[in-house]
Amino acid sequence: MGSKDLKLLDVFSYESLVHAVAGAMGSVTAMTVFFPLDTARLRLQVDDKRKAKSTPAILSEIIKEEGLLAPYRGWFPVICSLCCSNFVYFYCFHSLKATWLQGQRSTPGRDLIIGIAAGVVNVLVTTPLWVVNTRLKLQGAKFRNEDIQPTHYKGIIDAFVQIMRQEGVGALWNGTFPSLLLVLNPAVQFMIYEGLKRQLMRGAHRELSSLEVFLIGAIAKAIATTITYPLQTVQSVLRFGQHGQSTDQSKLLNSLRSVMYLLINRVRKWGVLGLFKGLEAKLLQTVLTAALMFLLYEKIANTTFRVMGVKRTMTSH
User: Is the pTM value of this prediction over 0.90?
Assistant: First the structure.
């Protein structure tokens, strides 16, 4: 069997599929548990007029004004998007790693490069799903900003159709430019996670304890989120599609101008700290979600490999 055939087997391997399914299942479960925290974060990012308060205070306001189930509004499209997104990311990350390393030991630099490559593929494939789920999640919300126009989508398919009809197919990729910049978030997260995992497993081929996985998952996500949070805010605003900044420039230049406009406008209104409005809610949600996701992912993957009698490769350790 030639080297090309071996590389093809690495890309379409059973092990990569197990990693992808385990990552998708872990992320869906974790997001469902902490979904209300994401609702609070998104409101603070998108609604300029809403005052920054503690996460419990924001959730209390939402429940009081919109009903008990309001924090779970848009759960289904978010879960669908997250499931597809994490499946693509985990599959690409582990298949690219297997293809490149060929049984060699990984390094933080390699993990970062592989994470960025997997992130680019993920963004280009799944951005339309995230644009739709952002719109659906905010539909029916009571905003402090009166300039925001209400939307009326009947579901995921109807949202796709309406956006394409009213705004053009390109609108489904709103926020792609900051999303491509934000591939650094999961890339840094995986680099730190894999690096800490290698340190803990140095000299001993063992499974990490649940506490160890939870803690290194939380640390990795906290660092990655804090570094990239201003761009995440811009990404949410662009996906919502009501940022009120448009030009006749090329799409790439327009995207760059929109990102710069939103960042500068936020600093002018609230100062540098305005770039981190909602960070508390985001950190609370994303750190807990990522930690639980990594815990479930490791358990599901290890259990599957054990049950199927497949030896898990040690390239990431």
Answer: no
